[in-house]
Amino acid sequence: MSDDVIVAHALRKEFTVLVKVGRLRRTRRLVTAVDGVDLRVGRGELLGYIGPNGAGKSTTLKMLTGVLTPTSGTALVCGLAPVARRTRLALRIGVVFGQRSQLWWDLPLRESFDLLRHVYRVPAGDHAARLRRCRVLLDLDPFLDVPVRQLSLGQRMRGELTAALLHGPEVLFLDEPTIGLDVVSRQAVRGFLAELGGTGDTTLVLTTHDLADIERLCHRLVVIDHGRVVHDGTIAALHERYGSRRLVVADLDTALPTPPTLPGAPLLRVEADGHRLVFVLESAGVAEVVAALAGLGTLRDVSIVEPAIEDVVTRLYRTPA
Ligand SMILES: Nc1ncnc2c1ncn2[C@@H]1O[C@H](COP(=O)(O)OP(=O)(O)OP(=O)(O)O)[C@@H](O)[C@H]1O
Q1: How far is the C-alpha of 133 from the C-alpha of 158, rounded, in Å?
Q2: Cβ(56) – ligand 1 distance below 6 Å
Q3: Ligand 1 midpoint to CA 160 (Å)
Q4: Where is the ABC transporter domain (predicted)?
């Protein structure tokens, strides 16, 4: 039996929108937000679901969590049809959507968590253990007794994450979990999700525009554009497909009259009046390039620059779907 916790086939969602034509007239137009997405996500996977604005990410997540009914296609999450079995599914998944809160605005966090324990009928021992873990990892104690409406965005997001996890979900869906957070909160949330995903017990599906989230957290990346999957694979595969290459940066004590020619690693540019040479690693290996550079007798320092995911994703978004 497959251990996929999410299986979507030809998932499609259309919306009818009214658009203005001329000064007074309005006409109906069909918007295809998700256009035949196939997706399988295994238990314990950490999946980044990314794409440019309006690509269909949130709409996909809403269909997978039972908030929206697909126009056509099928989805099963934890073996359940999300809309038809929404209540049952709610016990098996956790959802953190930036714009929607599951906390009680006027209650302190601690009381919201208590209420959620009753809503989900979580045994007291399990609840206490999960809450303890979140308190430590997300540093909740300084604001556990503060009413939710008084929390900062970063504090509330840490509360939302906790709320989504107290019933021990198998899958956690996160729509832009670090949006608008300051550096400290962003690191806290990322670190927490990395730890959670690292256990292999919880499947994470994450949409984000913050590619640092992806690099830190996701093993697999699904990129959608105009509602269609344009890449499904590892980050390394994405770099390979779009030809991103590693660079070797050599700092020299003395500039050379002519830069060296290294087989398999062409010179990309010369900087700092000839004191810095940047090579592209093509067919050559790092060791042979470094050895050749060391042989020049003027090498002070050498570093390898990994390709930035921003570059490759920007290029991917520009490529027609
Ligand atoms: N309720 C709705 N009614 C009409 N159109 C909608 C509705 N929800 C989404 N859309 C449209 O569907 C398309 C996909 O929207 P969606 O919110 O899924 O994109 P997204 O990838 O999450 O974008 P972003 O990164 O900007 O959040 C967009 O063109 C959007 O305008």
Answers
A1: 12
A2: yes
A3: 23
A4: 19-251
Probe residue for ligand 1, chosen from 53, 57, 206, 224 as the CB with the greatest number of ligand atoms within 8 Å: 57
pLDDT confidence tier of residue 236, bands split at 50, 70 and 90 = confident
Contact 120, 113 (CB under 8 A): no
- How high is the ipTM of this complex? 0.97
Whether residue 21 is found in the same domain as residue 110: yes
Same-domain status, 270 and 235: no
Is there a single domain that holds both residue 298 and residue 156? no
> Is 223 in contact with 240 (CB distance < 8 Å)?
no
Q: Are 160 and 151 in contact (CB under 8 A)?
A: no
Structural domain boundaries enclosing 170: 4-241
The whole-model pTM stands at: 0.82
Looking at the structure, tell me whether residues 258 and 218 fall in a common domain.
Answer: no
Residue 283 lies in a domain: yes
